[in-house]
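This section describes the prediction task in plain terms. A model, or a person checking by hand, is given the sequence of a single protein chain and must write out its three-dimensional structure as a string of tokens. No templates, partner chains or ligands are provided. The sample shown here is typical of the held-out split.
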Amino acid sequence: MPKTLREKLKNLFKKPSLPVITDKSSLQEISEVYPQFYNFIQRKYAVKVSTKEKTQSLKDFVVSRELPPSQVVFMEVQMESRSRGVEQISAQEVIHLIQKRPSLSILDVREDWELKFGSLPNSSPLTHELLDEMLQKWEKDKPLLVYCHFGVRSLDAASFLADQGFKNVSILKGGIDSWSNEIDPNIPRYEGAYC
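The expected answer:
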């Protein structure tokens, strides 16, 4: 049995392996794995990919179009792909959501050692037991807000929950770090978990 919730979630998230994408991969190869790739490039960077450019490597393409480094562009594509069905909301929007939806379940997916720094009001750590209960007994339309330190782990967890049929899943964009910055400075910012 996995030792931490993170390990359990990692096991649950396992999907069939995707082909390896590198900065040497052509745009065509990337679009075969991530069909939204061209639309993403056009929406995010206002760049329409030409037929000729589709044969270029990602590295050559971003250099020729003066875009951010290829690793950044590809990470953004992956994040968008993973976040379907999950709304990312700001700390200010979370306050309104809490007031508007008293039935909101707030789930903290940080490690145990991080909890000592503080938590969002009325939140619960997402334990093995709670996750099992959610998957087996909770209504799929129950509103959920998931958060972590900066928003990466919460996006993983929220995407998994959306994949399991939960229809109303949000994450705190920027995690508890943004909450500390924008809403409650009494919750100290901390180091040691960069996702």
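For orientation: The two ends are 24 Å apart (CA to CA).
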